């Protein structure tokens, strides 16, 4: 089977500090060969760069996550621009809009997000998008800049929204949440989206499978994501692996 690529995994997370090397090795044993690690604040850039330096299988993206909107400053945007220029980042993100948490200032989020769209376009790098309760708003900003080189990770919108988004060539990321037997709407969505537009992810350590609730999830989980999404789509797991790996390589120019 083609080696799988985890398109979204926070391998720099402190919850992996104890056993990171071992976890990467066990994932590689079952065919998860490569990992894309998105940074979420400038404070995390050094940790992300360190993981990438220590593991040839790790590529990374740099960005300012909307969840930490109160931590980001104009200087951080300048530092991001400089870092994208100097480093070997394969994308811009994790960035986007999170309108589900009311305490996160929406105007400020839009400002910081739009600046990152401009940067991504400038450096011709793909965007790694975090979108919660704001799919239409994010799409509007992308349209404004006519820049659709992106993946919406852990996508959870409607079929109609998915249709419009993939029409522009944007990829959709799916992970453990889509494998929950009770996630009927999300499963219908996965069934609808053509494999040419799908990336696989674990979003580890934050997205445990429904039957492992309250635990951190692991790099090795991508193998199971591939198996379960293949089942939902009634296709062979090896074919899904092959296509999604190709998609990820195309997007991040690996
Ligand atoms: Zn993430």
TrEMBL record:
The keyword Lipoprotein does not apply. A divalent metal cation 2 binds at residues 130, 153. It comes from the Bacteria. One of its GO terms (cellular component) is cytosol. SUPFAM superfamilies: Metallo-dependent hydrolases (SSF51556). PROSITE patterns: TATD_1 (PS01137), TATD_2 (PS01090), TATD_3 (PS01091). A divalent metal cation 1 binds at residues 8, 10, 94, 203. InterPro entries: DNase_TatD-rel_CS (IPR018228), Metal_Hydrolase (IPR032466), TatD-like (IPR001130). GO terms for molecular function: hydrolase activity, acting on ester bonds; metal ion binding. PANTHER family: D-AMINOACYL-TRNA DEACYLASE (PTHR46124), HYDROLASE (PTHR46124:SF3). Belongs to the metallo-dependent hydrolases superfamily. TatD-type hydrolase family. This is TatD DNase family protein. It comes from Marinicella litoralis. The lineage of its organism: Bacteria, Pseudomonadati, Pseudomonadota, Gammaproteobacteria, Lysobacterales.
